[in-house]
Amino acid sequence: MQTSKEKGNHVTVDWRPQAQVIQRLCTPPSYSAQPEDIATFQKEGVVLIPGVFTDWVDRLRAGLQRNMDQPDDYAFPCDSVAPGGKGRFFDSYCNWHRIPEYTAFLSDSFAASMACGFMASHSAQLFHEHVFCKDSGTRTATPWHHDLPYYCVDGWQNVSIYISLDFTPVETAVRFLAGSHRSEKLYFPRHFLDGSDYVQDDPKMASVTTLEDTFREEDIRAFELQPGDTLLFDFRTLHGTTAAPIQQQRRAFSTRWLGDDMVYCERTGETSPPLKDLGVTPGMRMPESLFPILWQQACTD
Ligand SMILES: O=C(O)CCC(=O)C(=O)O
Ligand SMILES: [Fe+2]
Fold it and tell me: Residue 134 is part of a domain; what is its CATH number?
């Protein structure tokens, strides 16, 4: 039997960014969001912005290739196809400071400014990046889940910016339950390998596993994606995929952002990423020495 440790991301190299890398980050350019996109994000918990990062696709693919070629040289690699299963479902995170193409994206793209606008925040603090690859032949569904309970942070102003790096037909793309980000309910994180719940002994959390059959079709948002198409979604929005086989490699590069009200919290069990010794107590902002603030809105009030 696999232990819960073997199912998740493995501890390899140190995930902590060096101060010098943070100091070298430039002020990224600014993004002008369409008010209707922000409104959709706030109402539905997800919005698609077609083609917005097309210019970054080649560089991010090159970065992801480094990550996948030598997974153990980078932090927290994970393979989530069960023994004997077909294909490969790879993910890894917290490598933005080690992979030059990821660092360049944070320094030179308008992602930080975009995050700030969609979160309706005065600042955008980088939590981490997260990359995914499902190889052709993979039949492993991404289990329905939402991201917040995986994390050692809590609050409402947050966003993931998920950039598709390949053409992805709607059948195998991530689908979202519109409006689920407004529910106060939290569900146990799940292992991507087999959909099992994490061991988090929190009486306020429930299991989402029995709920997915009850989602109404009209509330599901699913999008065919071209390389560079980008989904912005809330850490609380429920999402997952079908088990339809992947016909053609599907890769994605995601960055996770914290707004003004996001603070450190202690979960009652394992978290993902499993970040330790952050030097903060519950209720405090995440330390900027590890999670840099990359955008600050000019103060207008
Ligand atoms: O790409 C996938 O299948 C999973 C993505 C996901 O869960 C996320 O970005 O939070
Ligand atoms: Fe997720």
Answer: 2.60.120.620
